[in-house]
Design goal:
Layout lengths: L21 E4 L4 E4 L2 E5 L5 H12 L5 E3 L10 H13 L7 E5 L5 E6 L1 H4 L11
Antiparallel strand pairs: 1-2, 2-3, 4-6, 5-6
């Protein structure tokens, strides 16, 4: 995680470390991946915050049980789909991906596959 005074966004220079875990900075509403600020919540977004807090408490296991309060009048699968969309939306650096596990009882995360791929080598031709 970066200090409060240095919010390095990384851009195209973002390196992916498979041993690195995200960090949820609850007090500031910031999600970090190493030195990269992935997401900053400017609105209350209580369900997104709850999910980030649950992942942080679970040491960022790849799958956690739905931490949202149960409501018999709500379709849990649809709610988790909507939460995942919100978690994925407006990432400063879209390096993390969230999705419901399909059972309506859990949500998952991973580093986006495109982040693992390197840009193709540039071929120079002289002639």
């Amino acid at each position: 995680m970066s200090s409060a005074n240095s919010s390095y966004h990384g851009g195209a220079h973002a390196a992916v470390n498979s041993n690195l875990l995200p960090v949820w900075e609850k007090e500031r509403g910031r999600l970090w991946y190493g030195d990269l600020l992935v997401k900053e919540l400017h609105q209350p977004a209580p369900f997104q915050r709850l999910v980030f807090e649950a992942f942080q408490e679970a040491n960022w296991k790849s799958r956690i049980h739905d931490p949202l309060p149960w409501d018999e009048n709500v379709d849990s699968q649809e709610r988790l789909r909507n939460i995942a969309k919100g978690l994925n939306r407006n990432q400063i650096i879209p390096i993390l991906e969230f999705w419901p596990d399909g059972t309506g009882t859990a949500i998952c995360w991973a580093v986006r596959q495109s982040a693992h791929r390197r840009a193709p080598a540039r071929t120079w031709t002289f002639g």
